[in-house]
Amino acid sequence: MKIGFIGLGIMGKPMSKNLIKAGYELVVLDMNQSAVAEVVAAGATAAATAKAVAEQSDIIITMLPNSPQVKTVVLGENGIIEGAKPGAVVVDMSSIAPLVSREVAGKLAAKGVEMLDAPVSGGEPKAIDGTLSVMVGGKKEIFEKCYDVMKAMAGSVVLTGEIGAGNVTKLANQIIVAINIAAMSEALVLASKAGVEPELVYQAIRGGLAGSTVLDAKAPLVLDRKFDPGFRINLHIKDLANVLETSHEVGVPLPLTAAVMEMMQALKVDGMGDNDHGSLVRYYEKLAQVEVKR
């Protein structure tokens, strides 16, 4: 089974390398030629267009920034839809709006091409070590056909429903992550301003009900003042924009999500959009005139 992989960014590059390590033959594409060269050096071959990737592939994986890029790469000129063979599968592992997933899948289906929406969670560290969580929407038989390929990049691969369900699940994930980071930030800023060592507060609460994967991933980085991404504020803003758009379409008020979105927008205005989303602590630090550190 030959795999196409389009999008070799922070996440896509290590994910593609894990597929090569698992023994899959890859053909890759990205605008960043240094990323392409790095993956080619690991054993892939390069293609010039998305159409050319699709022509050579049984499964075409896309890992792109947002809905417009997915639509362009899949449906645009020299796109996947022009090169994919009937029976091929597009596995979009980008985090995009669920309605766009359904739109793209419908147009591919008219050409005899199947699709899964399969966004991931875990950030760059889990992309590197191959332990991402993958949330998948699509037909059960297509999920089973592609399961081993996705599992080569992940610790968990779960079918959550029909096409679009993967991205709905990812939106739910991003709500919880954003609000968890905000809550952690509030707590550590309070501790610091009240004169209590935030490192000790973290160690005291991490084993109790307040403990979480988010807390263990982000608190040590905040305490060390490490704000390199990770997962960029700008990307989380993109995800929360998709959350709020979807919530408005289906009639679900999300007041906490909306509040965290505005905090992230404030950080972006302050020039921190390319920093890790753990930088939410700096929004609170600015308000309280205190710094959280060891």
UniProtKB/TrEMBL annotation:
Family label: Belongs to the HIBADH-related family.
UniProt keyword NAD, yes or no: yes
Keyword flag RNA-binding: no
Record-annotated 3-hydroxyisobutyrate dehydrogenase-like NAD-binding domain positions: 164-284
GO biological process, one term: glyoxylate metabolic process
Molecular-function GO terms, alphabetical: 2-hydroxy-3-oxopropionate reductase activity; NAD binding; NADP binding
Residue ranges crossing the lipid bilayer per the database entry: none
Gene of this entry: garR
Location of the active site: 170
Annotated Gene3D superfamilies: N-(1-d-carboxylethyl)-l-norvaline Dehydrogenase, domain 2, NAD(P)-binding Rossmann-like Domain
Keywords: NAD, Oxidoreductase
Upper lineage: Bacteria, Bacillati, Bacillota, Negativicutes, Selenomonadales
E.C. code: 1.1.1.60
Protein's name according to its UniProt entry: Tartronate semialdehyde reductase
Domain 6-phosphogluconate dehydrogenase NADP-binding: 2-161
